[in-house]
Design goal:
- By secondary structure, this protein is an all-alpha fold.
- It folds into two domains: about 1-75, no CATH class; about 75-120.
- The protein contains five helices and no strands.
- Helix 1 (about 1-25) runs antiparallel to helix 3 (about 35-50) and helix 3 (about 35-50) packs across helix 4.
Length: about 130
């Protein structure tokens, strides 16, 4: 059942690539990166179906990238993902600032409480603290 579904989807993607090539022309088709990605997926899927001597499991993993084709038609999702990627760098800056504040407070704590005697005659022992 899965082999038939895979065959049908590969056939649909192949027909789509051929129709785009005939409509846009061969040279214009390969100028767009999305078309290059689609063509690469079609070729990898065809190689996987023909059971070539190449690494089939790697090709099957690459064919899983076909789900990314859905994002090219959803412009809102691509805007959302690009905004998320831009915020990751800002989040890293905030994380570094947070680490710096924690480090400064750790140094202040060691300065104030580092000289408390430890042991039997001191204030701290194995049962005190955290």
């Amino acid at each position: 059942m899965l082999e038939w579904a895979n065959f049908i989807f590969v056939l649909i993607f192949l027909v789509e690539a051929l129709v785009k090539m005939s409509g846009q022309g061969f040279k214009m088709y390969f100028l767009h990166m999305q078309n290059n990605f689609d063509f690469f997926l079609v070729v990898v899927s065809l190689c996987g179906m023909l059971k070539t001597k190449l690494n089939i499991t790697a090709m099957r993993m690459i064919r899983g990238i076909r789900i990314l084709r859905l994002f090219k038609s959803m412009h809102e999702v691509t805007k959302l993902l690009s905004g998320l990627l831009e915020s990751v760098s800002k989040f890293f800056n905030i994380l570094c600032l947070y680490w710096l504040v924690i480090f400064v407070f750790a140094l202040i704590g060691m300065r104030f409480y580092g000289d408390i005697p430890n042991g039997k005659l001191g204030y701290l022992n194995n049962n005190s603290g955290f």
